[in-house]
From TrEMBL:
Domain Transposase IS110-like N-terminal span(s) in chain numbering: 4-162
An MF annotation (GO) of this entry: transposase activity
Protein name: Transposase
Pfam families: DEDD_Tnp_IS110, Transposase_20
Record-linked InterPro entries: Transp_IS110-like_N, Transpos_IS110, Transposase_20
Highest classification ranks of the organism: Archaea, Methanobacteriati, Thermoplasmatota, Thermoplasmata, Thermoplasmatales
GO biological process, one term: DNA transposition
Domain Transposase IS116/IS110/IS902 C-terminal: 269-351
Length: 401
């Protein structure tokens, strides 16, 4: 048998072909163009003929979306491509490289050597997600951007108007209107109460309380913020408020698209039957899982979502190092957020599990992970059987939660 390892990048991939004894039969670079893809196929065929053997395995690491065109091309040419998470090959790298310096060519060698050192990877050709996941992942990027922008604004306000966030949320209509136009205590006082009212009325469609505005003016008068003599902080805050508005609008449009594309999805509709589990997180979960038949059991799904222990062993003994970090982080985050929502909405089964774990002196995070594991068990059942949620008693199915 022969094996191919391909370390993927944006413009150039590094490939190696080797035999079962890890003899390097060929290695080289492949540009991310069709001509080089075809040259790789020709090279494989020539080596197969000269060695009177067949390439049984092509191992590739998923790097962003850079690997997708080459993987698609190889599969269309009747090759089976196996995906290997770089984090999972860490021990193999140490064993082969003996901790030498990491390089792209060495990565290709390690990937090609994977079937000889760890046969289990011969069984995994990668996980296929729903096409909706590309949109839901864009949502994750926008949410992170919103968080970062809000942190920038908070940081600047801490210098010039630290009391502002006690009065208004920076992402509320009134809060953004005030910060975009004025931002600093001096600007607010200089504008006068009539202009402040005018800005807030326009932003909040006429809804405001005069006592809140009076409180704003009084707080601005007595603020401990530093003087913004050259309006540098005011400029930064205004720019970030503009960015925040744009990203919040992007988030609104993305979520509208997710809801539209999920409206006729039976799995999403079944998941939303759980009180406290909304359509957005349900859609993200279903899109990241893809076809449930890819998972042999609920435990396999839990492992994919990173809600299983990371096991380390030596001398015939094993112990847990905590929850594994090798996971689908988008699925993991959506499930964890859903677990919090289920508990906050006091969905009985999940609320009882949370309190059971807290009663065992577990932290909130550990308790929510236990809820997440039970939720994944139900998700597996719901998607496998195409039936809505059915409550289980807390004492049952201990192996899953």
């Amino acid at each position: 048998m022969l094996s191919v390892g391909i370390d993927t990048h944006e413009r150039i991939h590094y490939a190696e072909i080797q035999d079962e004894k890890e003899n390097k039969l060929w290695h080289g670079k492949i540009r991310n163009i069709k001509e080089d893809f075809e040259s790789l196929i020709d090279k494989i065929k020539k080596i197969e003929n000269s060695n009177n053997d067949k390439v049984e395995f092509i191992f590739m690491n998923p790097t962003g979306n850079y690997h997708i065109p080459l993987k698609y091309f190889l599969e269309n040419n009747n090759f089976t491509v196996y995906m290997v998470d770089a984090r999972k090959t860490l021990n193999l790298r140490k064993m082969i490289n003996l901790n030498t310096i990491k390089s792209d060519s060495e990565d290709a060698h390690i990937l090609a050597a994977t079937p000889w050192h760890d046969p289990k990877y011969r069984e995994y050709t990668g996980h296929n997600r729903s096409s909706l996941s590309s949109i839901s992942r864009e949502r994750s990027i926008v949410v992170k951007s919103i968080t970062a922008i809000k942190n920038y604004i908070h940081s600047d306000l801490a210098a010039v108007f630290p009391e502002f966030t006690d009065l208004y949320s920076i992402n509320s209509a009134a809060g953004m209107a005030i910060l975009y136009e004025y931002a600093t205590p001096y600007s607010i006082l200089n504008a006068g109460i009539d202009n402040i009212i005018k800005s807030i009325k326009k932003a909040s469609k006429g809804h405001y309380r005069i006592e809140d505005i009076n409180r704003l003016m009084e707080t601005a008068e007595n603020s401990i913020g530093i003087p913004d003599k050259d309006d540098a902080y005011k400029f930064k805050i205004r720019m970030n408020i503009s960015r925040l508005r744009d990203e919040m609008n992007n988030l609104k449009n993305i979520e509208k698209e997710i809801i539209s594309r999920s409206s006729n999805n039976g799995d999403v509709n079944n998941l939303t039957n759980l009180r406290g589990l909304g359509i957005i997180n349900s859609a993200i979960i279903v899109s990241e899982i893809g076809n449930i038949e890819q998972f042999e059991s609920a435990l396999k799904l839990q492992s994919y979502a990173g809600k299983c222990p990371d096991i380390e062993g030596s001398g015939g003994k094993t112990h847990s190092k905590g929850i594994t970090h090798v996971r689908n982080k988008f699925l993991s985050n959506a499930v964890y957020e859903s677990a919090i929502s289920l508990v906050m909405n006091k969905n009985k089964e999940f609320y009882d599990i949370f309190n059971r774990e807290i009663g065992k002196k577990k932290s909130n995070v550990q308790a929510y992970i236990a809820v997440s594991k039970r939720l994944l068990f139900h998700i597996y059942s719901i998607m496998k059987n195409h039936k809505p949620y059915k409550e289980k008693m807390v004492g049952n199915y201990k192996r899953y939660a």
